[in-house]
Q: What sequence folds into this?
């Protein structure tokens, strides 16, 4: 478990918890590769804006990391993109340390979720699709993206940065930014994340991508709640989500899944793989659910 803080752009920072201890995401999906929880903090002369928090159980570490950047009582707004507890878990302690000075911004459903999840009744302002909030000369625009992957999920747009919540994220503990490399390896964990977390809602992925594209927003970074921040090539992750959601087939790829108790099946499969490769086909091979695919 490790906490990291990096500047994304200007006065916008990411607070990232690198979780290599959780073995099952949502107590269901095995993640030996780990996962990150990304919160974001905007510093302005009129007060700060915090976008989401970390997983429940790491509240003290979150506050220690936050307090290295900002006094919690200086936080003017707390934006909640998604109320699931891996993003809202530190809210009770944060609101206590904030001394009730912040206004919580979120989908109208968020208000009742705060009360039912945590017994919290902070000052709350519902934000609608396209609503804007100004702070310190900066404009935050809210974009509703329902069912990615809860009904109340929302994104924020700030100075070219799309804070995308659970969308456009992935499993693993990758480099912080895409320009640091590792994108190709990371993408297989993005695929796993899409299939497991939002796979039931693929049509809503396409609706969200179409909506964002139709807004013609200049995007210089995509900053999700899990995984890598894309700022060298920000459309890469958006396009990849659209490709997965569109169920676009990859030409020249064959999936090979097998088990071999004593090795005989493996010998046969090896011959088959060699034959496929000899014909210019790219086999993606899974020997067992716990092993990485052979490429």
A:
């Amino acid at each position: 478990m490790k906490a990291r803080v990096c500047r994304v752009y200007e006065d916008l920072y990411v607070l990232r918890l690198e979780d290599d201890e959780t073995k099952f995401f949502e107590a269901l999906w095995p993640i030996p590769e780990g996962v990150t929880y990304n919160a974001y903090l905007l510093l302005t002369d009129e007060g700060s804006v915090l976008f989401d928090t970390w997983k429940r159980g790491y509240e003290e570490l979150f506050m220690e990391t936050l307090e290295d950047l900002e006094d919690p009582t200086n936080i003017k707004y707390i934006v909640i993109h998604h109320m699931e507890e891996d993003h809202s878990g530190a809210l009770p302690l944060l609101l206590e340390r904030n001394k009730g000075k912040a206004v919580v911004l979120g989908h109208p459903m968020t208000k009742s979720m705060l009360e039912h999840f945590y017994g919290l009744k902070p000052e709350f302002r519902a934000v609608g699709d396209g609503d804007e909030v100004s702070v310190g000369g900066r404009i935050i625009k809210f974009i509703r993206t329902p069912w990615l992957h809860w009904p109340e999920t929302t994104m924020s747009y700030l100075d070219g940065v799309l804070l995308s919540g659970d969308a456009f994220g992935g499993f693993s503990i990758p480099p912080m930014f895409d320009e640091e490399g590792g994108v190709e390896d990371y993408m297989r964990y993005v695929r796993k994340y899409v299939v497991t977390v939002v796979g039931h809602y693929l049509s809503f992925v396409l609706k969200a991508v179409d909506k964002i594209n139709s807004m013609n927003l200049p995007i210089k970074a995509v900053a999700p709640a899990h995984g890598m921040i894309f700022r060298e090539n920000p459309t890469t992750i958006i396009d990849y989500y659209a490709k997965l959601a569109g169920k676009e087939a990859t030409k020249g790829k064959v999936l090979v899944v097998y088990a071999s108790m004593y090795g005989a099946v493996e010998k046969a499969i090896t011959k088959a793989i060699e034959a496929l490769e000899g014909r210019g086909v790219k086999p993606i091979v899974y020997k067992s659910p716990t092993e990485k695919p052979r490429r």
